[in-house]
Design brief:
This protein is α+β, with helices and mostly antiparallel strands. Helices cover about 20% and strands about 35% of the residues. The strands form 2 sheets. Strands 2-10-9-4-5-6 form a 6-stranded mixed beta sheet, with no helix packed on it. It has a 4-stranded antiparallel beta sheet with strand order 1-3-8-7, with no helix packed on it. A hairpin with a 3-residue loop joins strand 7 and strand 8. The longest helix is centred in the N-terminal third of the chain and has 20 residues. It comes from Tetranychus urticae (Two-spotted spider mite).
Length: about 180
């Protein structure tokens, strides 16, 4: 009797392991770390369903849903209005956000769910919007970049690459 019970437990464990091996996974998830204000940003959520049908792919920004792809629905693509989100193009794995701005910034997440098995995976990453490239405002540059430029100038002067005398007056931190 104990042998039969042991056999049943082993069989159950083996079947459970086989189910785990054949499961949903997100194969590629890309949200750019930074995007310039006014530019486009492509976000990607590719998935491997291991043979199961897709139920939905949902996109969120700061936990607010803005896009849904549900292949079996009458209208498979659903766009939900969210401030700062303008979708230029989309398909079952990619979205092109257009004309991003400070309201676009946030935590972007994709959620993939399968039909039949009802497995769901969720992955997220943060997108930061950087001031426009054309901005002349010194505050858009990091202090690390300013220090790097100053060190390069110091090196150039000390090696007499720049022979003329000049002075640099930076009023950093003072208004």
């Amino acid at each position: 009797m104990e042998n039969i019970f042991h056999h049943i437990i082993n069989s159950f464990f083996l079947l459970t392991c086989l189910q785990v091996v054949k499961s949903l996974r997100i194969s590629e998830f890309i949200v750019p770390r930074n995007a310039f204000e006014g530019s486009d940003a492509r976000i990607i959520c590719s998935y491997d369903l291991e043979g199961y049908p897709l139920y939905t792919l949902k996109w969120y920004r700061n936990e607010e849903e803005f896009f849904r792809y549900e292949p079996k629905a009458k209208e498979p693509y659903m766009y939900l209005p969210v401030k700062g989100i303008k979708i230029n193009r989309s398909n079952s794995t990619h979205i092109l956000l257009s004309n991003v701005n400070k309201f676009t910034e946030g935590s972007f997440a994709c959620e993939v769910s399968t039909d039949i098995q009802f497995q769901t995976l969720h992955q997220e990453s943060h997108l930061t919007i950087v001031a426009s490239r054309s901005s002349d405002n010194l505050s858009t540059y990091s202090s690390r970049n300013v220090i790097t430029v100053l060190l390069l100038l110091q090196l150039m002067v000390s090696h007499q690459i720049i022979k003329s005398h000049f002075s640099v007056n930076l009023n950093v931190g003072n208004s």
